């Protein structure tokens, strides 16, 4: 099976970002969730960036709260 977003082969033992997240790879889902501010995913994506798995990843911008 392949990721429905990027086409990466899912659950490839040689690719740590290929974990199957319901038909999409962790590589895509992790970035989407991190961008949305989901703290567990943001923490994991930060670690993956530091370890070199996501060399082009950048920290998401803080979104201002319009109700504040």
Brief sketch in words of this structure:
This protein is an all-alpha fold.
Structure description:
With 68 residues, the protein is mostly helical. It has one domain. It has helices spanning 26-35, 39-51. Helix 1 (26-35) crosses helix 2 (39-51). It is globular, with a radius of gyration of 13 Å. The mean pLDDT is 93.
Order of helices and strands: HH
Largest sheet: none
Structural class: mainly alpha
Helix count equals: 2
Proportion of strand residues: under 5%
Broad shape: globular
Q: Approximately how much helix is present in the residues?
A: 25-40%
In angstroms, what separates the terminal alpha carbons? 44 Å
Flag low-confidence runs. none
- DSSP strand count: 0
- Round the mean pLDDT to the nearest integer and report it: 93
Compute the number of structural domains: 1
Radius of gyration: 13 Å
Oligomeric status: single chain
């Amino acid at each position: 099976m392949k990721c429905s977003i990027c086409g990466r082969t899912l659950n490839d033992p040689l690719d740590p970002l290929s974990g199957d997240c319901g038909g999409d790879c962790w590589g895509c889902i992790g970035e989407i969730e991190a961008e949305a501010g989901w703290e567990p995913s943001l923490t994991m994506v930060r670690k993956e960036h530091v370890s070199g798995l996501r060399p082009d990843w950048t920290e998401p911008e803080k979104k201002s709260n319009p109700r504040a």
